[in-house]
Amino acid sequence: MEMPVGRRSVFSDIGLVYCAAIWGSTFVLVKGALDSVHPVSMVGMRFLIAALLLLPWVLKRKNKAAMLKESFILSFFLSALFLAQTIGLVYTSASNSGFITGLFIIFIPAFMFLLRGERPARTQLASAGLAIAGMWLLTGGVNGFNLGDALTLGAAASYSAHLIFTDRYVKAGADTVMLAFHQFWLVSLFSFAIALLTGCPLGVGGVKGWGVIILLAIFPTLTAFYIQMLAQKTSEPFKVGIIFTLEPVFAAAFAWTLGGENFVPIKAAGGLLIVAGMVTGEFSKFYFPRAVKKEILPV
User: Fold this and answer.
1) pLDDT in tens, 44-54
2) With the CA atoms of 44, 50, 52 and 56 taken in that order, what torsion angle do they form, in degrees rounded to the nearest 10?
């Protein structure tokens, strides 16, 4: 029996909130574990474990190479996202990383202009202005903007590119299991290749380090990415974007509580401006006819 549309919508919304919350919590987890494992090795291990956990479902598929080409493209952006973000956490705070990563929504109009020649609307330019002002307050301006912040900004750009291409493939009826599996092992392969070429240590120091890696593999990698793809099939684009603006809010909340980071009012104000910019950007991209068609992203 097929689930009613309203109930599917509720479950999709819950799934997307779960994704935002679990991704927001990882900034503190990753930063706390970087004393035990090199950031590049951490990315390789978490994605390898996620791929292995998904393997039983993959083995039931007749065409094991399905979605390989699409996954290769997505894994390029996903690797850039997580490598830049994880290395960036060595130099910046978990709260800064969460807010700057949230700027991925601001990059989407820029990519759509480059890919499709679509000029950003005035409200999108205003949202970008709010976000830039917020990042200025959050990082302390030019003098306070460090390597970690720069790497995280690159991660945000990779995040938006990944979402745009995922949108294309999922709307075309992609097998989400194969799409996730091939992405996971390819990201792991890229990460370990970089680790070997650059001489990064592959060891993990202590049970705590392994515990964090396993948690990262199961929840924010395997479950969250898969739930995201499933939820976006039935969720309106406007709603998806608004829910995803909660990720940096969760990141800051975890950093200022469980992470033990100091609450700095001026940084909090910067984060609030970033979230305001992201919400403004989502309103500018909302287009009712496309929402009726349930397109994944408002692009």
Assistant:
1) 999 999 999 99
2) -160
